[in-house]
Design goal:
Shape: rod-shaped
Structural class: alpha/beta
Mean pLDDT: 87
Order of helices and strands: HHHEEHEHEHEEHEHEHEEEH
Low-confidence stretches: none
Largest sheet: 9 strands, mixed
Distance between the termini: 51 Å
Length: 290
């Protein structure tokens, strides 16, 4: 059943006369009659009762009349959407380290899916090295990373929000009663260090000496697992604020003093074109950050 023939059928049903309908459709009467006969044969039903003056619809014809209007309306709307407002589908792949700022990314994805419900997304968690490796291999569209960006390899968009560094401690730790911690407070405490932070000069500059002078007992890339070490009253975990919810727990987060913050950048490869879905995500994120 062709869209063209449905239009012919509707014209005849409205005019109730083949001659008048043929004239409006710029067809000859025999051509239109044959098209209607072929439609009836295709469907296996009689659509019209042909009277001396007017053509009336049979019950099958009345059913097709109501459905044909719906079908043609949907076709018109779909065509209009494709021409004027491109339908966006596809998948977006985003990698990120643990950061509360990830909520900005997820809020943007939620808003985007409300606009383009055919979209799907995939989130990958890892440190900056993991994220950039997957970005370089084409497995990710975007990476959310902390700190400076290699501008030779990546385009980037700096977010307004920043992360704050601090230390996670057991509430029974002698430092937990303080409001913040200074470099001298942490010099002799067994610490776990973010694997990403170990390659970052920010902490070294904050401490004022090489990190090797600290008592680093290990590294981590996911904070939840590292936070379990805080069950021991002796250990501290250098980390970012807001990742672990310490409310009502035995843990406490103390910010560093003087404050140390980290900038966040959304990055994507310079030598690859973004998909339409990825472009829509980026445009929406940038617009939210204005």
């Amino acid at each position: 059943m062709e869209i063209r023939v449905l239009n012919y059928f509707l014209a005849v049903a409205r005019e109730k006369n083949i001659s008048r309908a043929a004239k409006k459709l710029h067809l000859t009467q025999p051509t239109l009659s044959k098209q209607l006969k072929d439609l009836e044969e295709e469907l296996g039903v009689t659509l019209f009762e042909r009277g001396p003056r007017e053509i009336q619809l049979t019950p099958s014809g009345q059913y097709l009349f109501s459905k044909a209007k719906e079908i043609l309306s949907l076709v018109e709307k779909t065509t209009s959407n494709l021409v004027q407002n491109e339908i966006v589908s596809g998948e977006i792949y985003i990698g990120a380290g643990e950061t509360p700022v990830m909520s900005l990314i997820t809020d943007t994805l939620n808003q985007l899916i409300d606009i383009y419900p055919l979209l799907k997304f995939h989130l990958y968690s890892g440190d900056a090295d993991d994220v950039m490796a997957k970005l370089d291999s084409g497995l990710l569209d975007f990476g959310l990373v902390i700190g400076p960006v290699n501008k030779q390899r990546y385009h980037f968009f700096r977010l307004d929000a920043q992360d704050q560094w601090g230390v996670l401690l057991h509430r029974a730790h002698h430092l937990a009663k303080q409001q913040n911690v200074r470099p001298s407070d942490l010099k002799d405490i067994p610490l776990l260090l973010s694997r990403q932070a170990s390659a970052d000069t920010q902490l070294s500059e904050w401490f004022g000496f090489n990190l090797e002078q600290l008592e680093i007992i290990g590294t981590y890339n996911l904070l939840y697992n590292a936070s379990l070490m805080v069950r021991s009253h002796h250990f501290g975990v250098l980390c970012l604020a807001g990742i672990i919810n310490t409310h009502g727990t035995e843990q406490r987060f103390l910010p560093l003093e003087p404050p140390l913050t980290a900038s966040l950048n959304l990055i994507w490869k310079k030598d690859e074109s973004l998909s339409l879905a990825a472009k829509k995500f980026l445009a929406l994120l940038m617009d939210k950050e204005k």
